[in-house]
Amino acid sequence: MEQRHRPAAAADDTTKRRATKSKSFKDVENYEVLVLEKNCGCKFKSLRYLLIAIVSATFLTLLTPTLYERQLQSSSRYVDVDWIWDKTGADPRYVSSADVQWADVYTAIEDVSAGNRELKIGLLNFNSTEYGSWSRILPESHVSIVRLEHAKDSITWPKLYPEWIDEEEESEIPSCPSFPEPNGRRGAWFDVIAVKLPCTRVAGWSRDVARLHLQLSAAKLAVASSRGNRKVHVLFVTDCFPIPNLFPCKNLVKHEGNAWLYRPDLKAVREKLRLPVGSCELAIPLKAKGKTFLSRPKKRSICDDTAFSK
Ligand SMILES: *[C@@H]1O[C@H](CO)[C@@H](O)[C@H](O)[C@H]1NC(C)=O
Predict the structure, then answer these.
(1) For this UniProt entry, which segments traverse the membrane (predicted)?
(2) Where are the domains positioned within the chain?
């Protein structure tokens, strides 16, 4: 008796539930109808738009990274973006803790880009986030990342500046270790080469292989960009000033926070780049003998505010 009763009760329950369900469904239907009437039939249209929007948003989200990367690659064709960014993260020597003050960077560079001129800007040692910021503060400009393979770990400061050098060249001809070259497209040139320089701010910070490598690379890019009367600027973002022998104070055009804008004397830079990088090698031309571009500067090395007019 109970057994028979139970299913009946259960069935009753289900019916009840179904009734409530259909009731609430009807309520919704009523509501929808109300809405439909109020919106004069626009609801289905807007629903369709909403659906299209959701689908395209999902599609875009899925697609965005590849699109972004492809955009990066097409805007800077000679860049292996993933590669350098991964490497930058992996190699602590090249990591700069300098906080990029975009307002300062913009102020430093605004005269160069005067009149919204489209600038070609080459970035050295900036990461993907910073690349985005560069493109944002100078939307008219063409920003690209220059790939730079990092120096071998075996290149140390004492290797560049050994205490002893075999001047007689008896045992073997001394030579300096070579740094990887900035990897630009052939014939590529820039109006501005921007470099983020690491600076440890501890004693001997200037004896930093990565720092030297980056500045050498900037100098090489500047020289490669020179043609005719083209003005080439180098902008450093760093907490310590750049090598005065390569970028002397008299070439400093503007200094805002940790942004240093130089207009290097390209003829002088080209000459300096011909010299051995350190005392690891004897300069071959007689007049340059014993010189390296890192030899002690004659004047004081820190650029003060009187060193430049602006
Ligand atoms: C890039 O560097 C900045 C400053 O060091 C940092 O805040 C940011 O997270 C970095 N972005 C990437 C993608 O590593």
Answers:
(1) 47-68
(2) 22-70, 81-288
Gap from CA of 89 to ligand 1 centroid (Å):
9
Residue 303 has pLDDT above 70, yes or no: no
Which mutation among 86, 100, 125, 129 tests ligand 1's pocket best, with the greatest number of atoms within 8 A of CB?
Answer: 129
Q: Of the residues 94, 127, 196, which should be mutated to test ligand 1's pocket, given the most ligand atoms within 8 Å of the CB?
A: 127
What global pTM score does this model have? Answer: 0.67
Q: What is the pLDDT of residue 243?
A: 87
Q: What is the pLDDT of residues 73-117, one digit of tens each?
A: 444 434 444 444 544 456 889 998 888 999 999 999 988 877 657
Pairing of strands 182-183, 147-148: antiparallel
Q: How far is the CA of 112 from the centre of ligand 1 (A)?
A: 26
